[in-house]
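Limitations
The C-alpha cells in this dataset are predictions for the assembled complex, not deposited experimental models. Users should treat interface geometry with appropriate caution, especially where small molecules or nucleic acid strands are included. An illustrative entry is reproduced here so readers can see what is and is not provided.
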Amino acid sequence: MTTFLGMPATAPRGVGNLRGEQTFPEAAHEALANSQMRRNLRHATTTIRGKSGKVIAELPDWQALRDAGSAIKADVMSRLPDLLLELEQKVTDAGGVVHWAADANEANAIVTRLVRETGSDRVIKVKSMATQEIGLNEALEEAGIAPVETDLAELIVQLGHDKPSHILVPAIHRNRSEIREIFLREMPGVDPALTDDPPVLAAAARKYLRETFLSTKVAVSGANFAVAETGTLAVVESEGNGRMCLTLPDTLITVMGIEKVVPTWQDLEVFLQLLPRASTGERMNPYTTMWTGVTPGDGPQNFHLILLDNGRSAVLADEVGRSALHCIRCSACLNVCPVYERAGGHSYGSVYPGPIGAVLSPQLTGIEDNASLPYASSLCGACFDACPVKIDIPSLLVHLRDKAPHPRSERAAMAAAAWLMDKPKMYASAQRAAKLARIAGRRGRGLPPPLSGWTAGRDLPEFPSQTFRDWWAAR
Amino acid sequence: MSAARDLVLGRIRTALRDAPVAPDVPRDYRPAGRPASLETLIDRLVDYKAVVHRISEEDIAATVSGLVSGTVVVPPGLPPAWRPAGALQDDGLPQDRIAAADAVLTAAAVAVAETGTIVLDGSPDQGRRIITLLPDVHFCVLRAAQVVAAVPDAIARLEPRRPLTWISGPSATSDIELNRVEGVHGPRHLHVLLLAE
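Predicted assembly:
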C-alpha cells in the first residue's frame, strides 16, 4: 500500500492527552489501592445511575429516540464530507470563519495564532473534550497565554494540578474536603474561613471567576452539536460559565471534532432529549446556548470554528469501528461500568476514560499506542444498554482486541492450542496428560516463562481431577 | 482553500470509500403537536428550584417590585405596562452597569412543559443574551400560548439563526460530590411570571 495525500491518519504522538504514561493494567493496579477514590466514585456513579434511570423511565419513547439518534449518527458518518462543507458554507454566510485542522498540532497553532491576533494573553475556556484531547492548555501556556478553565470541576482539576477523571464530572474523584483544601491553597483571595459546604465552595468559585469573565476578551469552547443545514452551534452546560464564555468576549474560538455535525435543525429534537437524561440524569441541563455565526450587537463579534480531524479519519476508515464516532460524550457508559467504577478514570491514560474511552482512544492513536485498553472491560454489556445512541461497545472491544498486537509467545500458544483442539484423539490424551500437572505442578502459580505474562493478570484455572470425556464414559 | 481542508476532506473520503449508504432515519418517537400541560410545566419548574407566580398581566410590575427593591434591567422591546418603576432599559448598557443591576425582567419565546425549559430568542422583548446572564435574579414573563408539550415542539417553533438561550431552572452545579447547588455563574434565582389568560 502506498501512502498518498488524504490517507486516514491517527493522532500524532508527543502532543495532546490520548496516551497515558502507563498501560491500563499498571495504572489500574495502583488506582485500586486508593480506597478514598473508589468510595467517591462509587457514590457518584450510583447517584447518577439512579437519577438517570428515573428520568429515562418518564419517556415512553426512549427506545425510539435511541434508534433515531443512532440512525442520524450513521447517516452523518456516511456523508460526512458533504455535511462539513455545508456547515462551513452556512457558518461563513453567517459571519463566522471556518478553519480545518488535520491534527492536534495544527489546531493548537490555529488557536494560538487567533488569540495572539487579539492581543490578549488570557483566554477563558468552556469545558471541552476536544481541547483537552489536543492538549490546548499546554500549547497556550507554552505560547505565554493563560487558559482559565471556568467549569467548576475543571477549575478544581486545574487548581489541583490534576487530571480529569470523568468526561462529565472531571473532579468526581475529589470529595468536598479535598476541594476545600485545593481552594484554600491555590485560589488567590479566597476567604480563609472557607468551609467544605458545597454551596460555599461554589460561591467561592463564582467570586473568583467573576472578574475574569468580565475582563477577558477571548473565549475557547467546544461544541456539542453543529447543524449543517443552518450553521448553528450548540453548547449544553449547567453553571452559566458556558454562557459567560459564549456571550461576553469579543472573540469566540470553537474547536469541534468533525463527527459533531448533525444534518438538520430538527435532529436536535432527538439529541436534546437523549443527552441530558443519559448524561446528568436531568430532564434538561440548566443552560443551552445556540448561536449561528455572528449576531450584530449580541455576543462575540468574531467567531472562529476549527474543524478537527486528529485521528477521526482513521476511526472512520474502520467500517466496524467507525460507530465509536457516534459518541455524544454523555458518559452514561462510564457510570454503569464495573471496571471504571473500580479503576477510576485516570487508569485509562486518555481524556476519554471508561468503556467508550477503551474503544475510542486506541482507535484515535492507533492500537499500538493503547493496546491494553480494549482489555479494560469485562464485556458485561452494561455500556451498550446505557448508550443513548446504541454504540455496541462490547463488540467494538472484541473487534479491537483482535487488532491489538499480541506477544509472539501468546500467538504461538494459541496456534498450538488450535492445532491440538482440531485433533480429537490427541486432545483427549493431552487432557489426560494435564491431570499430571495437578500432581506435578505447584498450585496457585502462573505459567513459566515465556508464558508467565499471560498469567500475570489472569488466574490459571486448576485442571479438573476428571475430564468431561472420562466422566461421560464412566456414567 | 487551505491545505488542511483538502487533507482532512481527502482523508475522510478515502476512509469512506466503501461505506454503504445509511438507511433512512426512523422517527417513531413522539412528534410535535401534543397538547401542552401548564401543570406539568409548573411541576418541572418548581422541581428545578424556579419560583412560579401565576398572575395577570397588570400585576407584573408590582410583583417584580415586591420581590426586589434594586435596579431592574429591561430589554428595549419590553411592553411599557410590564416595567417596574425605575426600570433600567438596555440601550447598549455597558457590561458593568448590567453586572451591577439586581434583577432583569424579560419575556420569553417558548417554554417546554415536559422539561421545565424556557427559551429566549433575542427578540426585542427578551434582549441581548448578556442581560439575562449577569444580574442575580431573572424574572421571565410567560404566556400560556407560549407553552409547548415537549422538545420537538420547541424546535419546530424556534428560528435557529437567532441567538438562543435554553434555561431550565436557575444556574446549578453538581460538581461537588454530585450535590446540586443552585447558582454558580448565571442568575441564582429564576422567577417565572406565568400569565393567567
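Some entries come with short summary sentences. For this one: Chain A touches chain B through 99 residues (CB under 8 Å).
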